[in-house]
Specification:
3-stranded antiparallel β-sheet; mainly alpha; single chain; DNA recombination; DNA polymerase, domain 1; elongated
């Protein structure tokens, strides 16, 4: 019992205070805790990771899975209350030195950040289940490396126009690839949002798609009528129902499709391979255009960002609604959108002075749909 108490207190000043009190009382720890139900047995990392892996979301499991497997490999048979913060730091440095070097590698900093986050996730469940105390959480006392600024940026009009042209005229399924890139360019959605789309997430009459993205966020995002019809027709031709985006054989696409697209583009455009351009650059491009032409509040809603922000309290008062997002989308594509029409007519609310002004010209990089 005394050893169990020591483990739960995590040592240090708290344990010394208990020992001092027991000595003053002239009793043993066994006498003090006689009749008290023993605490739960502390699991090993192998056992604990197996349980936590089944409790987290799929996205969390995908990001942290690599690091959890490494922890099991090194510490699988150790109890989770045994490693110290220094041991965690040593393992982090080992992972950093042995990380797979890629063209976009940043010295293993991201690997260390994800490893520490993976450890904190494990211990957060241990604390919640009462396996260890908050003060005994060793991962909480290991600092993450400072995150470097992202190298992603908005693409120029010529760059993106060239990308769209090559995608529409090459590869083994240009129709699918053109629709996929157009979806990202119109909605600025993340890759996971596109892959999660189901047929029921497409509102053909309202020209909307329901996006489910990281953080379990869900929102309806306006798309052009042309894209809405193309998505519906693609799904009808390749397998009605289920995942919206599919190959010709009816199989749903995966993340590998994105790899194929950008590897193919990198062979035609060397700057894409050199700068490691990815789908997320399309998000930067669209949101930059929306912010420059419609302001921060609408760009924030367009991106699907939640109410939390480091930009200050003002963001509470500059929230945009789906009608304003539709107006920006309509200007981006050069097509009328049902929700934008309601905003312009005053059906939704009284027309504002800025609503009567001329909309900015659609960007040249979007152009006519290539599908």
């Amino acid at each position: 019992m005394a050893d169990d108490v020591a483990r739960r207190l995590g040592g240090g000043a708290e344990l010394e205070a208990v020992r001092f009190l027991i000595d003053r009382l002239g009793v043993s720890a066994e006498e003090v805790f006689k009749g008290v139900t023993p605490s739960r047995e502390i699991p090993t990392f192998d056992e604990h990771i197996s349980r936590v892996s089944g409790a987290v979301a799929e996205g969390t499991r995908r990001v942290y899975g690599t690091y959890w497997r490494k922890i099991v490999e090194v510490w699988g048979d150790r109890r989770i209350d045994e490693p110290s913060p220094m041991e965690i730091r040593h393992l982090a440095e080992f992972i950093k030195k042995n990380v797979v070097v890629r063209r976009n590698s940043r010295g293993g900093r991201t690997a260390v950040e994800h490893f520490i986050s993976a450890m904190r996730c494990l211990y957060s469940y241990a604390v919640a289940d009462g396996l260890i105390s908050e003060t005994a959480n060793p991962a909480a006392r290991v600092a993450k490396p400072r995150r470097l600024a992202s190298t992603r940026r908005a693409l120029s009009d010529n760059q993106l126009a060239t990308i769209n042209k090559i995608v529409a005229n090459s590869g083994n399924d240009p129709r699918l690839d053109s629709i996929l890139l157009r979806l990202h360019e119109e909605t600025a959605c993340r890759r996971g949002g596109a892959l999660a789309l189901q047929r029921e997430d497409l509102d053909l009459d309202g020209c909307l798609v329901q996006l489910r993205e990281k953080g379990e966020t869900v929102r309806w995002q306006p798309i052009s009528p042309t894209l809405a019809r193309s998505l519906a027709q693609l799904n009808k031709d390749r397998g009605s129902g289920g995942q919206l985006l599919r190959y010709r054989n009816g199989a749903p696409i995966t993340r590998r499709r994105y790899d194929y697209i950008w590897q193919r583009l990198g062979k035609s455009l060397p700057w894409i391979a050199a700068q490691q351009v990815s789908t997320h650059w399309l998000r930067h491009t669209t949101l930059t255009w929306v912010e420059r032409n419609f302001g921060y509040g609408i760009a924030r809603a367009y991106a699907g960002h939640d109410g939390r922000s480091a930009a200050g309290t003002t963001t509470t008062y500059v929230k945009a609604d789906i009608y304003e997002v539709a107006r920006a989308l309509s200007a981006l594509c050069g097509e009328k959108h049902p929700l934008a029409a309601e905003l312009a007519s005053g059906t939704v609310r009284p027309r504002l002075p800025r609503d009567s002004g001329d909309a900015p010209a659609a960007p040249s990089w979007l152009g006519e749909p290539q599908f």
